[in-house]
Design a protein that fits this description.
This protein has 19 helices and 24 strands. The longest helix has 26 residues, at about 575-600. Strands 1, 2, 3, 4, 7, 8, 9, 10 and 20 form a nine-stranded mixed sheet that branches. A five-stranded antiparallel sheet has the order 13-12-18-15-14. By secondary structure, it is an alpha+beta fold.
Length: about 675
C-alpha cells in the first residue's frame, strides 16, 4: 500500500494542556486523518466512562473515548423491575468477607478463582465511588447500605436504586468524564483493531459517520498504545433480544484481530417485552398476571399455560417464581418449575408462530372465581410474599400499583399503558456471561488490549444477579490501574504505525470501497441482518441441538465468503450497517463453534440453555421431542473453553481449548509483607 505523509499539525483536543497529535496521511491517493495518543476507550457505557475517569484520576491525561453514539448501548438504555448492583455486604449483622463473596462467584462454575477474588475485593471500592459521585443507592439513617438477596446469592449483597440503576451509573460517570474535559469522538463506528503481528494492539480503524460521503468514506485512524474495549455484549446476534435496539456489539473484529474468547457457550435468556425491550422480572411476575396466546392477527385468544400444569396452584406459583428466578434455567424446568414457563412461551412463539402477552388487567382464569383470584391456591412462599406486601387482593395491575407503581410508569413513559393493554413478550437474549478473554487486570491475550464490561468473558455458568454491573466497574478500574502503572509510553511514530499496519488498513479501505461499489436502487442490508439474527435465535439461544448448530455454522461461513457479492446498499449511509453485519457474522461463527465443541465434548443442558438429547426426557409429556434434555452433571464445570478465530485467505476456522479453572488464590496477607511489596511497586504488574 503506497504511503505518503502530508502536513503535520497539532490540535488541542484533550484537557489539561495535553495535546493530541493529528496528522493527515495519503494512502492509495486518499487522505486520511490519523490521531495519536496513549489510550483509546471504546464505548460510552458504565464501563467505558469509568475507565476514562479512573485513568484521569490516576494522573493519566493522554486519553480519549470513541463511540457510535454517546446515548446508545445497554448501560444507558436497559434495566429491570429492580436493577441490581451486587457487592460485599455493607449492612446488618450478617457475616461476610471478600473470600466468601469470591467463593459465591466462583461456585457458579467455569469461572477463574483469581478473577472472582478481584471482583469481590474491589466491589466495595467501586460501589462507594458510585455513591460519592451521586448514584442514589439507598442507605438507612445510620449510613448502612442495606441489601437483599438476588439469584444465586446466599447473602443480602444486592442493592438497587430502581429499574434504571445502570442508567444512573452511566450518567454520573459521564458527568465526571465531561467535567475533566476528556475528549469523546462521538458518531464513530470501529471497523478494525490494528495489531503488531497479532501479538499486541496498536490502533483502530473507524468510520466517521458524518463524513461517509467524502472521498475517504469517513475512514479515520487511531494510533494508540492501549485500547480499553467497552463495547458491551454481542446483542446484534439475536432476533429475540431484550438488549436495546441501539446495542449491536463489536466482538467480531476483536476475534478477527486475534483476541481469544472464553465461555462463549454461556449466555442468559429470559422473558421480556418486545415492543419496548425490558426484562419482566420481579413484581411484574410476582403480581401473577395472565399469560395469553393469540394468532398472528391477535385473534384466537387463550390462556395457554393451564394446558400444561396439573393444577392451578402449580401454575400460579410458577408465574410468581419467575420474579425471583427470571433467567431460564434447565434445573428449574422439571416438577413444573418456573422455567417451564419459558419453554411454553418459546413453544407458542417460535415453534407455533403465535404471539404471547401478559395481561395485568385480569386475574388468571384458572384459580379464580368470578374474576377474583383464590389466593388459597398459592404455595407458602408466594402467599407469604403477597401477604407481607399487603397485596392479597384485586387484579394484577391493582397489586402492581400497591407494590411497585414505578413499574407501571416505566411502560407508560415508553408508550405502553399496561393498566389498559396487553404487553407482548417472548423469551429473549439478555446477557453474555462469556466474552473476550481477560486476565486479572482484564488484559486480553492480545497485549495492550483490555476488554471490560459485558464484552469481557468474566463469568461462567451461573452468576448472582447484579454481578455484571459490579464487573463493569471493577474491570474498568483494574485496566486503568494497569495502564497508568505499566503502559504509559507514548504511541509509536505515525511512520512506524503505518509501516506495521498499512496492510491491515488497506484491507479495510478496499472492503469499504467494494461495499460502496454495491450501491444501487435497493438495499438488502437490514433484511440480511434479520435473517442472521433469526439463525442465531434458532440455533444458538436457549434451545440448542448439534444438528442446528452445524447447519448454522455452514450458513455463517458461506455468508462471510459471499458478503461482498450478496450485500446491496441503497446509499453510502448504509456502509456502517454493512460493516455491522460483517461483525455479527464473525461473532456468530465463533459462538456457534464454541457451542458445537461443547456439545461434541459431551456437554449437556446447564446455565440458561437446553440441549436436545434424544436419550433424555421431556419436561412434560405434552411437549414435542425437540425439548428432550439431560441435565449437566458438572463434567465441564471446572473448565473454561477458550476459542480462537483463524482466518487464512479464504479459509476460516476456530480452534478450541478446554482449560482447568484457576482456583481462588490463597495469599500471604500479612500486612508488613504486603506493604513492603506495595512500596516496591510489585503489586500492579
Amino acid at each position: 500500500m503506497t504511503t505518503l505523509l502530508f502536513a503535520n499539525r497539532l490540535v488541542d483536543l484533550i484537557c489539561g494542556g495535553y495535546r493530541m497529535e493529528k496528522r493527515v496521511v495519503n494512502l492509495e491517493g486518499i487522505d486520511f486523518d490519523v490521531y495519536s495518543l496513549n489510550t483509546m476507550v471504546v464505548g460510552t457505557g458504565a464501563a467505558g466512562f469509568n475507565a476514562a475517569d479512573t485513568l484521569y484520576s490516576l494522573g493519566h491525561r493522554d486519553i480519549a473515548m470513541i463511540t457510535e453514539g454517546i446515548n446508545m448501548g445497554t448501560s444507558r438504555n436497559t434495566g429491570s423491575d429492580k436493577q441490581t448492583y451486587y457487592k460485599l455486604t455493607l449492612a446488618g449483622d450478617e457475616p461476610d468477607s471478600v473470600l466468601d463473596m469470591a467463593k459465591t462467584l466462583f461456585s457458579g462454575g467455569a469461572m477463574h478463582g483469581d478473577i472472582a477474588l478481584v471482583e469481590a475485593a474491589l466491589s466495595s471500592r467501586c460501589f462507594y465511588k458510585l455513591v460519592n459521585i451521586g448514584v442514589p443507592f439507598p442507605h438507612n439513617r445510620f449510613g448502612e447500605y442495606v441489601g437483599y438477596k438476588t439469584d444465586h446469592d446466599p447473602r443480602q449483597r444486592a442493592t438497587s436504586c430502581g429499574p434504571l440503576t445502570s442508567k444512573f451509573m452511566t450518567e454520573k460517570l459521564e458527568a465526571q468524564a465531561k467535567k475533566k474535559g476528556i475528549k469523546i469522538f462521538d458518531g464513530y463506528l470501529i471497523i478494525g483493531i490494528l495489531t503488531d503481528k497479532g501479538e499486541k494492539s496498536i490502533g483502530l480503524v473507524a468510520l466517521d459517520m458524518d463524513k461517509l460521503d467524502g472521498p475517504d468514506m469517513g475512514i479515520t485512524l487511531f494510533n494508540c498504545t492501549n485500547i480499553i474495549y467497552a463495547t458491551g455484549g454481542p446483542a446484534g446476534m439475536y432476533l429475540k433480544s431484550v438488549y436495546p435496539m441501539s446495542q449491536i456489539g463489536a466482538s467480531g473484529i476483536a476475534y478477527e484481530a486475534g483476541a481469544k474468547g472464553v465461555n462463549l457457550t454461556e449466555s442468559q435468556y429470559g422473558i421480556a417485552s418486545i415492543k419496548f425491550r425490558w426484562n419482566l422480572s420481579g413484581t411484574y411476575q410476582q403480581v401473577i398476571p395472565r399469560y395469553v396466546s393469540t394468532d398472528e392477527a391477535g385473534g384466537d385468544e387463550r390462556e395457554f399455560l393451564e394446558d400444561y400444569f396439573p393444577e392451578p396452584g402449580k401454575m400460579l406459583d410458577a408465574i410468581f417464581l419467575k420474579g425471583y428466578q427470571w433467567p431460564f434455567d434447565p434445573r428449574k424446568v422439571e416438577g413444573y418449575g418456573s422455567s417451564l414457563i419459558d419453554i411454553l412461551v418459546y413453544y407458542e412463539t417460535q415453534m407455533k408462530g403465535r404471539r404471547v402477552f401478559l395481561d395485568f388487567t385480569r386475574n388468571p382464569s384458572w384459580g379464580s372465581k368470578d374474576g377474583e383470584l383464590d389466593f388459597s391456591h398459592l404455595g407458602e412462599e408466594s402467599y407469604e410474599y403477597l401477604k407481607n406486601s399487603h397485596a392479597l387482593f384485586g387484579t394484577p395491575i391493582e397489586r402492581l400499583v400497591k407494590m411497585n407503581q414505578p413499574a407501571i410508569d416505566l411502560y407508560k413513559s415508553n408508550g405502553i399503558d399496561i393498566t389498559r393493554e396487553y404487553l407482548e413478550i417472548d423469551v429473549c437474549a439478555q446477557h453474555n456471561n462469556g466474552g473476550l478473554l481477560g486476565d486479572i487486570w482484564y488484559q486480553s491475550n492480545l497485549k495492550h488490549f483490555f476488554p471490560v464490561g459485558e464484552v469481557n468473558g468474566t463469568f461462567g455458568i451461573y452468576r448472582p444477579g447484579g454481578s455484571a454491573l459490579n464487573s463493569t466497574q471493577v474491570g474498568s478500574f483494574r485496566a486503568a490501574q494497569y495502564i497508568a502503572t505499566n503502559y504509559k509510553d507514548a504511541p509509536m511514530s505515525v511512520e512506524s504505525f503505518l509501516h506495521i499496519a498499512s496492510g491491515q488498513i488497506g484491507d479495510k479501505v478496499r472492503l469499504a470501497r467494494a461495499l460502496r461499489d454495491n450501491i444501487g436502487e435497493s438495499s438488502n442490508v437490514l433484511d440480511r441482518r434479520k435473517e442472521m439474527q433469526r439463525r442465531m435465535t434458532r440455533a444458538g439461544a436457549l434451545i440448542r441441538s448439534l444438528e442446528e448448530c452445524i447447519k448454522a455454522i455452514d450458513e455463517c461461513e458461506r455468508e462471510l465468503k459471499r458478503l461482498l457479492k450478496d450485500t446491496k446498499l441503497s446509499s453510502i449511509d448504509e456502509l456502517p450497517d454493512a460493516f455491522r453485519n460483517r461483525d455479527i457474522l464473525l461473532t456468530q461463527y465463533v459462538y456457534l463453534n464454541a457451542i458445537k465443541a461443547y456439545i461434541e465434548g459431551g456437554g449437556r443442558s446447564r446455565g440458561s440453555y437446553l440441549i436436545r438429547d434424544d436419550e433424555g426426557r421431556l419436561p412434560i409429556e405434552e411437549l414435542p421431542d425437540k425439548f428432550k434434555f439431560t441435565l449437566d452433571k458438572g463434567e465441564l464445570t471446572d473448565k473454561v473453553g477458550e476459542v480462537e478465530l483463524k482466518i487464512e485467505g479464504d479459509n476460516i476456522f476456530c480452534s478450541i481449548e478446554w482449560s482447568p479453572v484457576r482456583p481462588i488464590p490463597s495469599e500471604d496477607n500479612w500486612f508488613e509483607n504486603v506493604w513492603n511489596e506495595y512500596l516496591k511497586g510489585n503489586i500492579i504488574k
